Amino acid sequence: MSVPNEPAVSRMNPTIVMCQPGFYKSTLGNTECSKCPPHSFSHHEGSLFCGCEKNYFRAEGDPVAMACTRPPSAPRNVISSINETSVILDWSWPEDNGGRRDITFTVVCKRCRSAPSGGGGLNQLCEPCRSNVRFLPRAAGLQNTTVTVADLLAHTNYTFEIEAQNGVSPLAPKMRQYAAVTITTNQAGEMPQLSSSGIKACGQIIRQERT
């Protein structure tokens, strides 16, 4: 009669101990078994690694001893400060970093306008911003929570989507979230203004008014 949690023994080589479900060892031999890292599992004896739970992932290069992780939540508290045809965007770090420290931010610029719809209403049509729009310091791979966007058109509506990313974000495109802020640029001499922001996930924007 077998004893629960007693290490299994390989039939090919009785001297090699096989790991029980829930444990693994990445190399063959008489090394000790390790418990599966957080958010991972092994269902079979003799596992060389533990697979990730649903909606958790390992990036290429992550060691098998590392916990499985997920994409971060959206940035928070987005504030925009408009000065003529430029805007400074500031935001807070996401509440959930997904279990990773390699967080960066990407800002997408869209120029939006209203157009008549077939039912007599108006649709919001957006297209990527012109190539001459400048992001300072840059639009992608940001490690700080602020960016300046310059050379925008005057009296024009823009939407900026700010996404927090980590090493497993490319593996879970449906789980990615971003904060969205919509602004209207001024002409020279007008006072700076704050704009509204929202968080978008699964095709919906939750408005968050900033005052």
TrEMBL record:
GO CC, one annotated term: plasma membrane
Top-level taxon: Eukaryota
Biological process, per Gene Ontology: axon guidance
GO MF, one example: transmembrane-ephrin receptor activity
Domain Fibronectin type-III: residue ranges: 71-188
Bilayer topology: Single-pass membrane protein
SMART domains reported for this sequence: FN3
Keywords of this entry: ATP-binding, Membrane, Nucleotide-binding, Receptor, Repeat, Transmembrane, Transmembrane helix
UniProt-listed Pfam families: Ephrin_rec_like (PF07699), fn3 (PF00041)
Gene3D superfamilies: Immunoglobulins, Tumor Necrosis Factor Receptor, subunit A, domain 2
ATP-binding as UniProt keyword: yes
Subcellular location: Membrane
Official protein name in the record: Ephrin type-A receptor 3
Organism: Takifugu flavidus (sansaifugu)
